[in-house]
Amino acid sequence: MSNLEALYQEVILDHNRKPRNFREIANADRHVEGRNPLCGDQVTVWVKLDGDKVTDVSFKGVGCAVSKSSASIMTQTVKGKTVAETKQLFAKFHDMVTGKMTDAEREAMGSLAALGGVSKFPLRVKCASLAWHALKSALDGGGEVSTENEGPAQTQGA
Amino acid sequence: MSKRSSMAKSRQHVEDLNRPSVGHTLPRAPEPPPVSPRRRDFPMLAANPALFYLDSAATSQKPRAVLDAMRAYYEKDNANPHRGAYDLSARSTQKYLDARERVADFLGVVDTSTLIFTRGTTESLNLVATAWGRTNLSKGDEVVVTGMEHHANFVPWQQVAIEVGAKLRICPLTPDGRIDVDALRKLLGRKTRVVAFSHVSNALGTINPVADITQLVRDKASHAIVVVDGAQAAPHIRVRVDELGVDFYAFSGHKMLGPMGIGGLVGRRELLEAMPPYQTGGDMIEFVGDDKTTWNVVPHKFEAGTPNVADAVGLAAACDYLDAIGIDAVRAHELDLLTLITRKLGAIQGVKLYGPSDLNQRSGVVSFNVGDIHPHDLSTVLDQEGVCIRAGHHCAQPLMRRMNVPATARASVYVYNEAADVDALVRGVVRAKAMFAH
What we know:
The complex is a heterodimer.
Chain A: H1 3-7, H2 10-17, E1 30-36, E2 41-50, E3 53-62, H3 65-78, H4 83-97, H5 103-107, H6 125-139, E4 145-146
Parallel strand pairs in A: 1-4
Antiparallel strand pairs in A: 1-2, 2-3
Helix pairs in contact in A: 2-3, 3-6, 4-6
Chain B: H1 2-6, H2 37-40, H3 43-47, E1 52-53, H4 64-77, H5 87-106, E2 115-118, H6 121-136, E3 142-146, H7 155-164, E4 167-171, H8 181-187, E5 192-198, H9 210-220, E6 225-229, H10 241-244, E7 248-252, E8 263-267, H11 269-274, E9 285-288, E10 293-295, H12 309-325, H13 327-346, E11 351-354, E12 365-370, H14 375-384, E13 387-388, E14 390-392, H15 397-403, E15 408-412, H16 419-436
Parallel strand pairs in B: 1-13, 3-4, 3-5, 5-6, 6-7
Antiparallel strand pairs in B: 2-8, 7-8, 9-10, 11-12, 12-15, 14-15
């Protein structure tokens, strides 16, 4: 499998075409908007909590296949987890997309492993982590987030 | 770079765009073809025959002549100009003066000292918005920009307007991405103090009729200055600033084969002389007293600190290179490639092209989208084929909102591009379509 095929696996393309939990949660406890200033991608993540447990999570927004599918898979993965478990998962996910994982560790990531191909494309790390940053901010009770400082340094030339 | 050039890819032509692809692969010639004479002038392109550089609207590649001129300056003529009382410093000063004359001549500016060297278009426009704007604008005044402006000709005006309480008015565009001149006419009036617009749009390639618009401003808004962002025009079409009749014209060196970090602002002399300085410090003073300072003459008043002689020398060499080809030949070459790109991309189902359909009103910039493939995904696929394009909002978010798209892909050409670059682009688009189709 080429790097490109690893990045755009069928499961990624599928989530891009049919994003799961692509909706608002009317009575959400928290929602946070995330932006990728480089490419104008925008995602809003809604979270419903029951005590310490994430009972529902959803997203909407515009973005590339990587950011959309990552958000979609994220919503499926964290539902039912505690806040602490979700944050741990984000830390692992971040290690995976930044190439700090062995193949075996990646395989243990379950459905999130589909995003493992991102590690060969450092410029796309911020796409993959946009929704996660928004989710983490929502769990922390924070506001709008930006992935400006995620991944290698980039600026917006003309 | 090395990864790409080691891949067996060629500057071949695509034989049949509509041939169904097998998996994600399309046929490629095994050997890169010979490098064309023009590409041989550009060390980056000569060393990488499998690099298909289609992002010259962002920055151009540099010919050896420019790199050599800069190196020669540092090896033979380097000293701080204006200050040293010795021959080497005099030589450096002369190099800087010569460069200013050379660039002024290239842009059709007779009064050479009204050309101020800056770091580029962004600094030039900030200079005008700050030094002229803060002095001359006040509450109730109107500043007109257009919906197609690069952030560099939008945000400085927006910010100075906020600061002084002036009103920013944004001229609408026609559906095909031109300035709506009838709408502009209605925006102009007694309160208009600034009309700022681009000569050529960086996102759509639209060539605006600068002289006509300037005349309209003179007729309808006699209190307004005309400020033109020429960053995308100076490299690609014949620009005679004096003949355009504008008050300020900004440009960048790095988009016209010169180095990064140098550009300029051409200003009307009486305006420049009346304006306060933009930055203060060395070189720009006449006399510094304990309590007050008087300014040096134009252009030095606006060039505080040690001048960027080496980059000015490089930019002058870039002007020599372009003049040796002839700017009209550059334009003709780009128009040929533009025609080829729009025809070949337009033939692919699902490709949407933005900007004026009359190619005579377009520079060598093609903004497009491929079905619902996000431009970022498209550029990642193209990058794997060695094709460099820009994907995103092109520092023109107000324009993207007006076109109602979050982003576009943008291919842009220059003197060193050829049919093989277009073919590689088309090949990559077809591959991306195959990957994302379902």
